[in-house]
Amino acid sequence: MATEPEVPTEESSPASLRERLIRMNLPDLVHGGGHAPDFRETRADYIRRRIRPLALLLAIGLPLWLPLEFFLLDTPDALLTMILRLTGAGAGLVLWWSCRQDTGYRGTLWRLALLLAIPMTLYAMARFIINSDLESALASGYAFFPALTVAALAIFPLTLREGAFGSVVILAVYMAIEAAMGNLGRWDTLGNLWLLVLVAGVAVWAALSQLHMLLRLYRQATRDPLTGLFNRGALARRVRSQLEVGGGADAGLCVLLFDLDWFKRINDTHGHRAGDRVLEHFAALLQDELCDGGTPGRWGGEEFLAVLPHGDLERARALAERIRERLGAEPVDLFPADSLTVTASVGVACRQGDESLDALVQRADDALYAAKTAGRDCVRSAPVPT
User: Fold this and answer.
1) Which end of the chain is more exposed for a tag (fewer CB within 10 A), N or C?
2) DSSP class per residue in 115-130
3) What confidence tier does 318 reach under pLDDT thresholds 50, 70, 90?
4) Angle, to 10 degrees, between the axis of helix 232-246 and the axis of helix 357-373?
5) Spatial contact of 227 and 209, defined as CB atoms under 8 Å apart
6) Whole-angstrom Cα Rg for the chain
7) Each residue of 56-82: pLDDT tens digit?
8) How far apart are CA 299 and CA 229, in angstroms?
9) What 8-state DSSP symbol labels residue 305?
10) Of the candidates 26, 20, 36, which has an alpha carbon nearest to the alpha carbon of residue 222?
11) CA-CA distances (angstroms) from residue 374 to 182, 244, 361, 370, 371?
12) Does residue 7 have a pLDDT over 50?
């Protein structure tokens, strides 16, 4: 009895797209330059929602220490610390209020910097106002501020560059304050500095772990697990965002809608694992052809959509022809002794005026239907709507 040929699967293929999807790339954790725009905004919203309660906690908690300071300090010093604490509480309240709505990626990072600056500023001013050692009952409360500020980094999903930069700034401020006080060479100061370095290391690691988890959840929600391409919902959101930003200027946006010919027959004849291998092969081909521009995604089943942000009909059609010809010329390896030639039908449409994404894709789908009606393995362009 003949057995179905063994096709490389997600588990057996070390270079499968799914493994590359699950395995985090180091640059994604080191810096945010390679993050997708929608993930960048998602992360910013996540950070903003965590800034708010901390800012409110500062606004409420900072004034609560005032009665003790008025009891232990001379009136002039108590008045100075009162001004500092009320100013910090006011800044926390403003920060809490400003984070009630979307603040954008850069705006959120600036607000995070302000949140961390509040306790460090209070610590700096208190060290110069309270001239006793940090072991005193009152000053010991301020002594915790640098460690708490560094530890607060662990609450946010930060990249290595962001977390390291924040830690270095906090440590530099602490060292500058102690140097100005003439305490930098003291053993207790060096011990506190060593403790801050340890806390910073743990905090940055925790922040990276949160970012890793957020990236995993984001990719699982936005990527097709088999091919690693954007899924339909994520690709549609990405394109609609481009249309909202570009408006009428994005009239040159084009879409290529691919349908793998006789895909059901491939599944029925060679098995679903062979069908998965065909989908992976075409996805890799699309990514290679669009590496210089354009975004591919799996639109559903055996359909794939490629979005060209700045193109015209002639260039879009030429690209579709090149992809179609390359697919037919490169057989899909199902097994070392077996291969399969696959073809695709393609519908091409370019945006006209302020045409919506749904209308644009519908015209590409109509063109795809025309290509399949014409015998498959060909490219058809959608007519300009009247």
Assistant:
1) N
2) HHHHHHHHHHHHHHH-
3) very high
4) 120
5) no
6) 29
7) 999 998 888 778 777 766 777 778 778
8) 10
9) E
10) 36
11) 85, 36, 20, 6, 5
12) no
- Say if CB 162 and CB 116 are below 8 A apart: no
SS3 356: coil
> Please, which pLDDT band fits residue 253 given cuts at 50, 70 and 90?
confident
Q: Structure pTM?
A: 0.70
- Crossing angle of helices 187-222 and 145-152, rounded to 10°: 20
Cβ atoms of 241 and 295 within 8 Å: the answer is no
Q: Torsions phi, psi of 356, nearest 5?
A: -75, 165
DSSP state of 227: T
Among candidate residues 58, 52, 57, the one with its CA nearest the CA of residue 102:
52
Measured from the Cβ of residue 213, the count of other Cβ atoms closer than 10 Å reads: 11
Catalytic residue chosen out of the listed positions 280, 289, 302, 355: 302
| Residue range(s) in the chain whose domain bears CATH number 3.30.70.270 | 225-381
CATH superfamily of 225-381: Reverse transcriptase/Diguanylate cyclase domain (3.30.70.270)
135 is catalytic: no
Please give the C-alpha separations between residue 106 and each of 48, 52, 86, 163, 237, in angstroms, as whole numbers.
11, 16, 27, 15, 21
The per-residue pLDDT for range 12-60, each reduced to its tens digit, is: 333 444 444 445 567 888 888 878 777 888 899 999 999 999 999 999 9
Q: What is the mean pLDDT of residues 95-99?
A: 93
Q: Which two tokens stand for residue 216?
A: 């995993």
305, 361 Cβ separation under 8 angstroms: yes
